[in-house]
Amino acid sequence: MSKLYSVLRFKCPRCHKGDLFVKKNPYSFKNALQMPDRCPVCNQDFQIEPGFYIGALWTSFPIVIFIMALLSALLLIYLKMELNTFFITITAILFLLQPIIIRLGRAIWINVFVDFKEES
Fold first, then answer.
1. What is the pLDDT of residues 19-60, one digit of tens each?
2. What is the largest CA-CA distance in the chain?
3. In Å, how far are 31, 44, 72, 110 from 36, measured between CA atoms?
4. In terms of CB atoms within 10 Å, which of 26, 64, 65, 97 comes out highest?
5. pTM of the prediction?
């Protein structure tokens, strides 16, 4: 298993088994971003320090830029969408993807600092 598995499945970076988020559905808006303090499987601390996930902004920003570039190419070049319609469409899409983008940013961020450990 790799870090990519942990990030894309929102699993604990240490054991790849415990869930990073309390709720699996990112669109369950009540507590959608709530994370347990520790992994229920391996007891890895998910709240490494106060404000730890503020750093996740550094990982979610490139995700947004990538999505915007991809959508821009698709909508403007391929579909030849009108500019006003394009801005409304890209804003709506990014707004709808925001819960997933925030979760991805957090998953990437914790994976930068916590390594996978094989069970002994």
1. 999 999 999 878 888 999 999 999 999 999 999 999 999 999
2. 58
3. 11, 10, 37, 13
4. 26
5. 0.88
Q: What are phi and psi of 36, to 5 degrees?
A: -65, 155
Q: In terms of residues, how long is the chain?
A: 120
d(CA 65, CA 106): 16
Give the model confidence (pLDDT) of 61-117 as tens digits: 999 999 999 999 999 999 999 999 999 999 999 999 999 999 999 999 999 999 998
Per the CB < 8 A criterion, the answer to whether 44 and 16 are in contact is no
Are the C-beta atoms of residues 108 and 4 closer than 8 Å to each other? no
Distance CA 115, CA 36 (A): 18
| Residue 31 CB neighbour total at 10 angstroms | 10
Closest CA to 33 of 41, 44, 42, 22: 22
